[in-house]
Inverse folding.
């Protein structure tokens, strides 16, 4: 339902996804990887219909991921020390909510950053349409004060979209026209403190629990 948190009614499933991330991280550690597990708070699909309708719409397409401050500091250190050039994606769904576990992998095969994500397909229509069009999703990981961001770019994002998603099913203009106006659209503008980690030509493994 519009206006409610995406995890309403599915929080137990979310906790299972977080446990799955931990199990996946353990598998990587046993294989000799250095791992960093992240535990997001709110995850927001961008652009929202409201920001897409505003005059100050920014070119952010993907998922905005709020992290605890200490985890964001650790992430910055890992990104500074490693180049990430591929990812694995594990997907499941419950009702209208899609759950993901992303594993960003370093080029030298020594480090992996893992984080779970979620989005409600009802609220994410504009994002999904634009991700499919661009053939790229971005994850914007940030602390609460939003002073800095680490940005991972995932190309070939089919396994990050809902199973069987058809971009033609989204009337983006209608979604935007129905959106409420932003109280303060300038609050959506980007800061200068971003670290971009581009990921191109990656191989994506998908585990879709819907088919299990």
């Amino acid at each position: 339902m519009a206006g409610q948190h995406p995890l309403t009614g599915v929080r137990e499933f979310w906790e299972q996804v977080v446990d799955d991330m931990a199990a996946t991280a353990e598998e990587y550690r046993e294989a000799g990887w250095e791992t960093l597990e992240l535990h997001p708070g709110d995850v927001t699909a961008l652009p929202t219909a409201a920001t897409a309708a505003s005059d100050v719409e920014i070119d952010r397409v993907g998922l905005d991921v709020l992290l605890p401050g200490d985890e964001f500091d650790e992430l910055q250190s890992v990104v500074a020390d490693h180049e990430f050039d591929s990812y694995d994606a594990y997907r499941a769904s419950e009702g209208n909510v899609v759950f993901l576990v992303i594993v960003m992998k370093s080029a030298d095969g020594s480090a992996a950053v893992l984080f779970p994500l979620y989005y409600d397909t009802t609220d994410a229509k504009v994002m999904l349409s634009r991700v499919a069009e661009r053939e790229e999703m971005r994850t914007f990981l940030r602390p609460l004060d939003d002073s800095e961001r680490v940005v991972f770019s995932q190309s070939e994002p089919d396994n990050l979209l809902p199973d069987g998603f058809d971009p033609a099913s989204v009337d983006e203009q209608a979604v935007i026209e129905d959106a409420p106006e932003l109280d303060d659209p300038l609050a959506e503008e980007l800061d200068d403190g971003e670290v971009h980690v581009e990921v191109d030509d990656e191989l994506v493994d998908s585990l879709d629990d819907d088919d299990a």
